[in-house]
Amino acid sequence: MIIVMRAGASKEQVETVINKVHSFGLRTHPIYGVTKTVIGIVGDDKTRIVEKMQSMPGVEDIIPILQPYKFAGREAHPENTVIELGGVKIGGDSVVMMAGPCAVESEAQLLDTARYVKEKGASILRGGAYKPRTSPYSFQGLGEEALKYLAKARNETGLLVITEVTDPRNVELVCRYADILQVGARNMANFVLLTEVGKSGHPVMLKRGPSSTVKDLLLAAEYVIIEGNRDIILCERGITTFETYTRNTLDLSAVPVIKNLSHLPVIVDPAHATGRTSLVEPMALAAIAAGADGVMVEVHPDPDTALCDGPQALTFGEFDSLMTKVRSIASIVGRSI
């Protein structure tokens, strides 16, 4: 349920309504729009609010939310959410490029990559410090050492840093080094982790699980939002189907679907979706044409020697070629890089 305040409602009126809701033992999530404030309500027995608060000063309407995702949906927040970090706007008029190695392998590897992708137009550096792998014998990441390399790369290049957090116990640690916390596809339904990243207040990129519906993804976002964190980026990275040629099947239709249902920014990860370098570029361009707010790709100085996901990583030259085409497609759909 949401309480819609009138245009021009005073700060005191909004606070009075919030305090009244709290007196019923319910939680509030105020959303301050350009012209109006909307107060989301979480809790049971909401009919009491309708009976007692409809006539309160400043209240325009009280509306039940029919969708199961109360705050990630457009019913409560009709305007697009734009997340601004260090001068980078995610969800705005520009397409945001996130690029870097799947896993941070060394300081030199990361810094070389960071310098190159920055030069070619990326604004966010990706790199895994903790790598949840199918096999326990595969490379698991360098941990805090990698986080320090990421922070050094940010300090040198000015790129924002996104990296995955896999354990609720590591949220505070990763927040010290990263600008954006990534919740991977395997952890989309890890509700303890979602709660902790929500409490952190740090921007979060939430990847869709391989067997999850769009509804599941939006409900996962709710776990973050109800902890007071609304800086969420949703990521389509492919789903499991009967097709075996690609690693997953990239559901590009999810981009406009999510845009219709939710106000949150949406990016696409064509590397994890396809698992093949040759498919990364066409799927990245298609994602931008479909309305994605950004693209995440893997870039490695020498993919043949990569410790993680080399077959889907771009070389420096391939990333350069991609960025040239990304600018063209972005301009066609009225956006920039």
How does this model look, in words?
With 337 residues, the protein is of the alpha/beta class. It folds into two domains: 2-63, Alpha-Beta Plaits (2-Layer Sandwich); 83-332, Alpha-Beta Barrel (TIM Barrel), CATH 3.20.20. It is built from eleven helices and 14 strands. It has helices spanning 11-23, 47-53, 107-120, 144-157, 171-177, 191-200, 214-225, 254-261, 270-274, 277-289, 316-332, and strands at 2-5, 27-32, 37-42, 59-63, 83-85, 88-90, 96-100, 124-126, 160-164, 180-183, 204-207, 232-236, 266-268, 294-298. The strands form three sheets. An eight-stranded parallel barrel has the order 7-8-9-10-11-12-13-14, surrounded by seven helices. Strands 2-3-1-4 form a four-stranded antiparallel beta sheet, covered by helices on one side. α6 (191-200) packs across α7. The protein is elongated, with a radius of gyration of 21 Å. 44% of the residues are buried.
Please tell me the overall pLDDT.
Answer: 93
- How is the main sheet built? 8 strands, parallel, barrel
Total DSSP helices: 11
Major sheet: order of its strands? 7-8-9-10-11-12-13-14
Tell me the series of helices and strands, N- to C-terminal: EHEEHEEEEHEHEHEHEHEHEHHEH
Q: How many beta strands in the DSSP annotation?
A: 14
Number of individual domains: 2
CATH first level of the largest domain = Alpha Beta
- Weakly predicted, low-confidence segments: none
The gyration radius over C-alpha positions equals 21 Å
